[in-house]
Amino acid sequence: MTKIRVALVDDHPVVLAGISALLRTAPEIELVGDAADGQAALRMISDAAPDIAVIDVSLPDMNGIELTARLAESSPDVRVLTLSVHEDRAYVQQLLQAGVRGYLLKRSAAEELVRAVRAIAAGGMYLDPAIVRKAIADPIAEPASCGQDRLSPREQDVLRFIAQGFSNKEIGSKLRISTKTIETYKARAAEKLRLRTRADIVKYGATQGWLKQL
Q: At what angle do helices 64-74 and 38-48 cross, to 10 degrees?
């Protein structure tokens, strides 16, 4: 069995211990390191090279948005799952734009953490059910849906994979097309549906049930 290598970042020792205990219940997950602040996390993740980094969005020296953005530069192969107490839509949007693959509320961790890690390790995206409900209720999603019938099958495929968190390289491998062609399909679909950001695409995907397939 190939292990899912996971690193943890949280400045509260009790929370860190609880997260560790939850993940150790899954035999396919291997914990490879932990850190209590952003700077230590950058060093630890660079050294340990985990598949997934589970990070608290509220750290003493930097927030989750900054840490995610810096990890995208220093460790681009590491997929980020954020843990947060925040359900604010704008905050979620910023993290999605920064490139997180998952957003899990701390109150849901006991039931959903292992499932989230498995979904992200499989190449997809995980959003807390409460966040998905907020995305569906977002007024941006309703007017955008009017253009769905104008999407070509390939435009819809590309948009669905983007919403699920796959990179252009991964999408290209699945659909056997170039990254440049993917960008063309993405731009056309986004224009038709009036989706301006990656967060908008994720929210639209939630309204279509694409994230439930993960």
A: 30
Predicted TM-score (pTM) of the model is: 0.71
Residue 108 shares a structural domain with residue 142: no
Give the CATH number for residue 106: 3.40.50.2300
Distance separating alpha carbons of residues 200 and 205, to the nearest angstrom:
9
Smallest CA-to-CA distance from 55 within 131, 132, 113, 121 is with: 113
How confident is the model over 41-95, as pLDDT tens digits? 999 999 999 999 999 988 889 888 889 989 989 999 999 999 988 877 777 878 8
Please, what is the Cα angle at 128 between 61 and 107, to 5 degrees? 65
Integer Cα distance of 146 and 35 in angstroms: 46
Domain count, the chain: 2
Beta strands in the chain (DSSP E): 4-9, 29-35, 52-56, 79-84, 102-105, 126-127
Nearest to 214 by CA among 112, 138, 134: 112
Which of 91, 87, 113 has the alpha carbon at shortest distance from 23? 113
Give the strand pairing for 52-56 and 79-84.
parallel
149-188 pLDDT, tens digit per residue, is 688 999 999 998 888 777 788 888 889 999 899 999 999 9
- CA count, 13 A, side-chain hemisphere, 40: 14
| Single-letter residue type at 136 | I
